Structures are given as structure tokens and as C-alpha cells.
């Protein structure tokens, strides 16, 4: 074949599978860029941010980067918010097994978040202080976003399709009937402030203490049915990326999720955070700490979320997330999966530790060393254990495989379920 003949030949069409493969190589497998900005005006000075954009899953290996963003909105003082900000990340990470693959690490994360929140609460309780805090903790690893939250700070996700979703659940007694039932069943009383000869005012609160939240870190003076067990949601974004807006109730009492997302579309994260705060102040004034963190997860080093042609995206997403295709007849899915740009990996909000950490092991007197699922302390299984160990179960339990609790953590678990109290005043 001569050179002329070669150059005259038509290029054969590129098969779709090859195109998809190129998309995967170019976009999906490469890690996205994470850009963030924060802004705020303080009224009470009780909102704290945690921003660690360059954590490493494997220390020293820069290919294992992940980012953490969190907000803590304190009440009755700031010590719980500061304590949580300083200790929660290490408490979460120490609950993840060593030497596991990235996929296993991400799968272990929801459980580790529960452990980290509870451990932080137990450690704060030992200080004997009474303040409390919300905690909304967001971990971004590649396209996977994992959010754990107690209280009423929120994280929302704005995706390329313009669909805004809430990744957290509000733990407010006023708005959460399930939580009201749980608190009441565990020994709390739920009601409003009683003033002026029996007139009830304000939101539903939990008594004793008068807290409006049903979950928090701290609040040791309220009652341990106010639990630190977080709602956890894990999603995987498409390679179109998305924007997270993380903020305390100072923003959300003024703006709906849609309003917050719309107020800052098309601008880089740093400016976006300022615009959200400005919009909240415009509609409500400075009545509370009004602070906001915007995190963009974007496919290239681009200052803002790029526009992706709708057609290309729908082909890709229907292939990548076949069972949650936007073109399928399965319309019963929630808003997130209905657009097909976000894959839901995990969601659990139960306040029961056994449901979150795994089943109890059957009782057995097998000798050995066991590791507490919450505080990670090793204990001999002879007298000092309050729970049961399995004979099938190797000495030194793998912390992600089931629920073994040391005496102290078992007490905490019982207290959260209303079975007894570990409040300092009653255990002293
Ligand atoms: Zn323990």
C-alpha cells in the first residue's frame, strides 16, 4: 500500500466503547480538583471550621490524598466545639483498619465515623464541661463524598444538572418525629418553654436541659439520649463534579438549600462562600453566627464548575450507573439518583449503636485480648469485659468486624439507650 493510498483512506468511526474508555481514563479515574472557600460573620462566635485539604490515607504517599471539611456550631459555651474540632478527625481515622485498599477504606469509613463521633463525645464528657456542639463532617476522596452529621448544621450538594440535595438530616426535635419518639422512649421529656401562666412558646425542646437538638457532641448536662451517633451518607459524584455548601443554622434559618445553591452558581468557591453569607444576611440580618464553607469538586483545574453538554452526560451516566439511569422507568428513586449524576453508596441514620457497628457477639468465656470497637482499647477478656466474645473470634478483634465494647463504652451505650446514666454527677 502506497503513502497516497493510506492518506486517502477514511478514518474508521471510533467505537462508542472506546470513547467511553477515553472518558473514563481522562475524567473518571483521574482525581478531581478540590477547591474551597469560606466566609462568615460572627454574632456569638460559636461556629468553628475544620479544614484539612491535604490528608493522606497512606502517610507519605501523595497519591492517597483526601480532604476533610467540617463545621461545629457550639452552644452553652464553645469548649465542645473546640474539642470536637481538635479531636474528631484523629478519632475517626484511628477507627479505620490499617493496610487496606482504597475501596475497603471508603467502605470502612461510615462505621469509623460513628466510632469517631462517639469516642469524641466520651472523651469530652470526661472533662466535666457542659457545652455542646453540632458536628457536620465531610470527607472528600476522589469523587466520593462521605458526610456524617449530628445536630442541625447542614451539607448540601449542588450538581451539574442543577439538582440540589441535602446530604444531612436535621436532628431538631421540632422537625423530627422519629427523634422525638426515641428521646421520649429513652427517658427525656419533650415540650416547649412554659411561660406566662402556661403559654407554651418557642420550638420543641428536650427536658431536662431545654435543648432543641436531639443529637450533638457534648451536652453532658442534658441527658445521654441526646446522642452523638451521626447520620452518615456516602455518594459518588459523576465526573461532572459538584459543589458542597456546608453551613450552620445561621445560614439555613435564612435560606433554603435551593436559595443557597442559586445564590452562588457560576463563581469560584471563595467568592461563592461570600455570596451565600451575603444572601443570608440580606434576607434575615445578623441574628446568629452566619458562616459558610463552599467546596467544589471539579474535573479540571478550572476556577468554577464547568458546563457539561447534557447529551454527553446522559450517555455516560446511563452506562456508568446503569441501575440508576436517568432514562430508566425507575422514577421512585429520590432526587439524587433520579438525575443519574450521583451514585448513592451508603446512607444510615439509626441512633442505635448496635445497628451502626455490627451485631453483638455471642457470650463466651474464651480467653484472649479484645479491642473495644469505640475507644480501641485492648482488654483481656477475663473479668473486665462487660460483653461477650465469640469462640470463632480471633484474639485482638478486628475493629470493623463486630461489636465488642469495653466496660466504659458499654456504659455509654446503655446510657444512650436510656438504660442508665454515666453523667458525672451520678457516677461519682
Ligand atoms: Zn471502649
From TrEMBL:
Pfam family, one: PP2C
Catalytic activity: O-phospho-L-seryl-[protein] + H2O = L-seryl-[protein] + phosphate; O-phospho-L-threonyl-[protein] + H2O = L-threonyl-[protein] + phosphate
Cofactor (UniProt): Mg(2+); Mn(2+)
All residue ranges annotated as the PPM-type phosphatase domain in the record: 25-297
Metal-binding recorded as keyword: yes
Domain of life from the UniProt record: Eukaryota
E.C. number: 3.1.3.16
Ranges in a coiled coil: none
Classification via InterPro entries: PP2C (IPR015655), PPM-type-like_dom_sf (IPR036457), PPM-type_phosphatase-like_dom (IPR001932)
Keyword Oxidoreductase included in the entry's annotation: no
GO molecular function: metal ion binding; protein serine/threonine phosphatase activity
Enzyme class, first EC level, given as a word: hydrolase
Keywords: Hydrolase, Magnesium, Manganese, Metal-binding, Protein phosphatase
CDD domains according to UniProt: PP2Cc (cd00143)
Family classification: Belongs to the PP2C family.
Protein name: protein-serine/threonine phosphatase
Amino acid at each position: 500500500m502506497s503513502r497516497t493510498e493510506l492518506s486517502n483512506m477514511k478514518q474508521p468511526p471510533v467505537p462508542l466503547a472506546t470513547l467511553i474508555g477515553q472518558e473514563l481514563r481522562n475524567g473518571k479515574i483521574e482525581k478531581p480538583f478540590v477547591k474551597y472557600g469560606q466566609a462568615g460573620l460572627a454574632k456569638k462566635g460559636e461556629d468553628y471550621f475544620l479544614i484539612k485539604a491535604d490528608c493522606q490515607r497512606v502517610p507519605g504517599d501523595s497519591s492517597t490524598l483526601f480532604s476533610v471539611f467540617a463545621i461545629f456550631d457550639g452552644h452553652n459555651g464553645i469548649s465542645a466545639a473546640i474539642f470536637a474540632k481538635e479531636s474528631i478527625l484523629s478519632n475517626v481515622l484511628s477507627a479505620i483498619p490499617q493496610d487496606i485498599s482504597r475501596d475497603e477504606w471508603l467502605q470502612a469509613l461510615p462505621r469509623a465515623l460513628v466510632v469517631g463521633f462517639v469516642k469524641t463525645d466520651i472523651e469530652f464528657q470526661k472533662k466535666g464541661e457542659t457545652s455542646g456542639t453540632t458536628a457536620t463532617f465531610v470527607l472528600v476522596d476522589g469523587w466520593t463524598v462521605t458526610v456524617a452529621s449530628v445536630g442541625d448544621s447542614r451539607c448540601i450538594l449542588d450538581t451539574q444538572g442543577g439538582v440540589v440535595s441535602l446530604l444531612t438530616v436535621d436532628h431538631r426535635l421540632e422537625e423530627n418525629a422519629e427523634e422525638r419518639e426515641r428521646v421520649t422512649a429513652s427517658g427525656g421529656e419533650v415540650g416547649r418553654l412554659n411561660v406566662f401562666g402556661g403559654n407554651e412558646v418557642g420550638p420543641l425542646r428536650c427536658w431536662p436541659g431545654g435543648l432543641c437538638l436531639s443529637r450533638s457532641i457534648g451536652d453532658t448536662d442534658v441527658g445521654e439520649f441526646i446522642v452523638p451517633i451521626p447520620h452518615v451518607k456516602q455518594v459518588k459524584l459523576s465526573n461532572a463534579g459538584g459543589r458542597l455548601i456546608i453551613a450552620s443554622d445561621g445560614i439555613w434559618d435564612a435560606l433554603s438549600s435551593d436559595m443557597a445553591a442559586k445564590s452562588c452558581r457560576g463563581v469560584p468557591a471563595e467568592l461563592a462562600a461570600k455570596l451565600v453569607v451575603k444572601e443570608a444576611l440580606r434576607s434575615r440580618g445578623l441574628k446568629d453566627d452566619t458562616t459558610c464553607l463552599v467546596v467544589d469538586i471539579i474535573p479540571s483545574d478550572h476556577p468554577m464548575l464547568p458546563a457539561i453538554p447534557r447529551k454527553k452526560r446522559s450517555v455516560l451516566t446511563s452506562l456508568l450507573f446503569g441501575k440508576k439511569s436517568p432514562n430508566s422507568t425507575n422514577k421512585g428513586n429520590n432526587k439524587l439518583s433520579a438525575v443519574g449524576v450521583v451514585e448513592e453508596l451508603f446512607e444510615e441514620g439509626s441512633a442505635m449503636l448496635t445497628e451502626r457497628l455490627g451485631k453483638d457477639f455471642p457470650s463466651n468465656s474464651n480467653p484472649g485480648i479484645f479491642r473495644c470497637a469505640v475507644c480501641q482499647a485492648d482488654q483481656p477478656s477475663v473479668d473486665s469485659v462487660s460483653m461477650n466474645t465469640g469462640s470463632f473470634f480471633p484474639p485482638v478483634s478486628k475493629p470493623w468486624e463486630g461489636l465488642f465494647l469495653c466496660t466504659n463504652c458499654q456504659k455509654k451505650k446503655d446510657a444512650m439507650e436510656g438504660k442508665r446514666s454515666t453523667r458525672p454527677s451520678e457516677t461519682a
